[in-house]
Amino acid sequence: MEIVEKVFTYENEGREINGVIALPKEGGKHPLVVMNHGFAGSKEEGIGFVSISRALAENGIAAVRFDFSGCGESVVPFSEFSLTHNISDSNAVLHYVLETENIDKDRLGILGYSMGGRLAIMVTDADNNPYKAMALIAPGAQEAMDFATIMGGKVEGDKIVVEFFGQRLELGQEFLDDVLSSNDTMKNATKKVDSIVFSGTNDPLVSPETCKKISSKLESKLFTLEGADHGYGFFENPNMGYVNKIVDETVAFFCEKL
Q1: Structural domain count of the chain
Q2: Which of 117, 107, 1 shows the shortest CA–CA distance to 54?
C-alpha cells in the first residue's frame, strides 16, 4: 500500500513539538498508533521508529512519531523533559492528529520504547485512557527506579548531570520526581489493554527480568530477541534482523488488535 508522510509542528503548553505522520495513501478512516521515544531519543530512534511507522502505514494503520522536549529537532531545553510534560505532549499529538486526519477514534494504539514505554503504561493506566492496544519495546518499567542513581548522575552545582550514549545531559528535578512517583504505577500495573512486550537478552538498561515481570502483570505477549541490547539494532550499523522482527511483530499485533 502506498503511503504519504506529513511533517508537522504543533504547540502544547508553550512547547513546540515536531513530528511526522505516516498515512496510507488510500482514503477512508484509519486506525492510529502514537509512538513515544525513549530518554534523550528522537522521533527517528535511528531507523527503528521510521521503519515501524512506515510499515504500519503500508498495512493500513496511520502512525505518528514526534520529539519530546530537548530531543531530536526540539528547540525546548532538555530540562523540560519529564514524564509529566511528555504525557501531556503525547496526548496533545493524539488530539492534533485526530483533528487533522481521518482517523477512527475507536481504533487507537500506543507504542513506547524504553522511557516511552513507562509513559505508555502510565497513559493506559489512566481513567481517561483512549487506547485499546499497546506495544512496548524494552519498557522502563522498573518498580524502584531512581534515575539519577542508576545512570550515575553527578551533582554539579544545583544540577544533576548524566552521561547517556555520549550525551551530557542536565536532568530537571521534575523528571527525577516523576520517575520516583511513577514507581507505584509500575508496581500496581494490571491489564488495561491488549499488549506486547519486546525484550533483549543482552539489554543492560531494561533487563529481561523487568520485561518478563511487567509482561506478566499486563498479561501481554512477551517477544524475546536473543542477543539484543538496548539499541535493538536501531542505531549505528543497524541489525536488520532485530529491526525486521520488531517491525513484523508490531505490525501483526496492531493489525490484529486494531
Answers
A1: 1
A2: 1
Neighbours of 60 (CB within 10 A): 18
Give the pLDDT score at 158.
Answer: 66
Whether 250 shows a pLDDT value over 80: the answer reads: yes
Tell me what pLDDT residue 42 has.
Answer: 98
Domain of 125, CATH number, reads 3.40.50.1820
* Gyration radius of the chain over CA positions: 17
What is the reported pTM?
0.96
160 falls within a domain = no
| Gap between the Cα atoms of 216 and 234, Å rounded | 26
The answer to whether position 252 is within a domain reads yes
In a domain, 9, yes or no: yes
Q: Which residue has the higher pLDDT, 6 or 176?
A: 6
